């Protein structure tokens, strides 16, 4: 099953979730509505809404409830993106002006806060204390891990375990909540909730690591991203951790200088060529992909509890491999 076939299973539900999210943001002021329309209008991939509605389909969950939760998930995710772009000073988001670039940092901070508050207001309407607790803890995880990532800027001694802990909070915990929230609202058994949570968590690891790989091995004209942006910002991600496990002391010093210096644009082409050569010489892309394939096999195995004839389960089983091979 390919990505187009997967989206076709839930495209109507995803469109409705996006509509619900927009409507919820248009009730206070025209300006907030303008920001919401700009944020969602053709720019959001709606990955979390897609994942949630696939899990809901596999579990035969109530469609109205799943659409509302999917809307909340996208609001929470977009709030984090808005705040991240301010922290990173990002002028572009998915090839278009970022919200902060278009509307200013002050407005974007408050708009992100509003998205958080609005999401929790919608969640509260479902009258589930466990669901509120799940999303509150997930939001805490997101914030804690982003702070920890900032604390480790330029730290080339960041271990693989420390990195996994960071991406658990900033990415995998929201993927886990995306899936396990279906079990909570649908009164699934505890072990089914656990299985969905672990599936989502591991899918989140795959998503984040594959995203890290794009920063080193993608084609900028396809992704719309500048290569090695993470390194120039001092963010030590999975492929760089793998490289640092292999390099000589002299090569490690070279990487340290880059991570700490944020070199000017005039020097980056030459630096990037040297980084590319190191990545190729030590076979880092292949090593990372081996880790990802092991994760993919582990991830799909968590779905064994659910109906093996379900086309939704088939779609969820296909997602890990699709994320690994994605180009954007």
> Multimeric state of these chains?
single chain
What class do helices, strands and sheet pairing give? mainly alpha
Q: Over the alpha carbons, how many angstroms does the gyration radius reach?
A: 20 Å
Tell me the strand percentage band: under 5%
Largest sheet: 2 strands, antiparallel
Report the end-to-end length measured between terminal Cα atoms: 19 Å
Question: What order do the strands of the largest sheet run in, or round the barrel if closed?
Answer: 1-2
| Low-pLDDT residue spans | none
- What sort of overall outline do the alpha carbons produce when their principal axes are compared? globular
Q: What is the secondary structure topology, with strand pairs?
A:
Elements: H1 3-25, H2 30-40, H3 47-58, H4 63-88, E1 92-93, E2 96-97, H5 99-103, H6 105-124, H7 129-151, H8 160-185, H9 190-217, H10 220-223, H11 229-232, H12 238-244, H13 249-261, H14 265-281, H15 284-301, H16 311-325
Antiparallel strand pairs: 1-2
Helix pairs in contact: 1-2, 1-3, 1-4, 1-16, 3-4, 3-8, 3-16, 4-6, 4-8, 7-8, 8-9, 9-15, 9-16, 12-15, 15-16
Describe this structure in words.
This protein has 328 residues and is an all-alpha fold. It contains 16 helices and two strands. It has helices spanning 3-25, 30-40, 47-58, 63-88, 99-103, 105-124, 129-151, 160-185, 190-217, 220-223, 229-232, 238-244, 249-261, 265-281, 284-301, 311-325; strands spanning 92-93, 96-97. The protein has a two-stranded antiparallel sheet. A hairpin with a 2-residue loop joins strand 1 (92-93) and strand 2 (96-97). The longest helix has 28 residues, at 190-217. It is globular and about 60 Å long.
């Amino acid at each position: 099953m390919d990505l187009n076939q997967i989206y076709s299973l839930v495209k109507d539900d995803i469109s409705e979730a996006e509509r619900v999210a927009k409507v919820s943001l248009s009730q206070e002021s025209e300006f907030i509505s303008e920001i919401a329309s700009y944020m969602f209008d053709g720019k959001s991939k709606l990955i979390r809404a897609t994942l949630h509605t696939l899990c809901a389909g596999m579990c035969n969950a109530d469609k109205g409830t799943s659409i509302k939760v999917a809307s909340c998930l996208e609001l929470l995710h977009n709030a984090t993106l808005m705040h991240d772009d301010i922290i990173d000073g990002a002028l572009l988001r998915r090839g278009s002006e970022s919200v902060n670039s278009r509307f200013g940092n002050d407005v974007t901070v408050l708009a992100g806060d509003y998205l958080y508050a609005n999401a929790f207001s919608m969640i509260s309407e479902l009258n589930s204390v466990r669901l509120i607790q799940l999303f509150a803890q997930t939001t805490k995880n997101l914030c804690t891990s982003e702070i920890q990532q900032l604390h480790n800027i330029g730290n080339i001694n960041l271990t693989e375990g420390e990195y996994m802990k960071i991406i658990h909070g900033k990415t995998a915990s929201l993927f886990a909540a995306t899936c396990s929230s279906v079990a909570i609202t649908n009164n699934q058994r505890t072990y089914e909730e656990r299985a969905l949570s672990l599936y989502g968590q591991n899918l989140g690891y795959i998503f984040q690591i594959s995203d890290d790989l794009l920063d080193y091995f993608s084609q900028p004209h396809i992704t719309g991203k500048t290569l090695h942006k993470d390194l120039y910002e001092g963010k030590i991600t999975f492929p760089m951790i793998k490289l640092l496990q292999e390099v000589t002391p002299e090569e490690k010093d070279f990487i340290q200088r880059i991570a700490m210096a944020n070199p000017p644009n005039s020097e980056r082409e030459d630096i990037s060529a040297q980084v590319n050569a190191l990545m190729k010489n030590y076979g880092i892309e292949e090593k990372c992909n081996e880790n990802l394939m092991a994760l993919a096999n582990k991830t799909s195995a968590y779905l064994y509890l659910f109906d093996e004839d379900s086309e939704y389960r088939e779609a969820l089983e296909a997602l890990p491999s699709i994320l690994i091979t994605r180009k954007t």
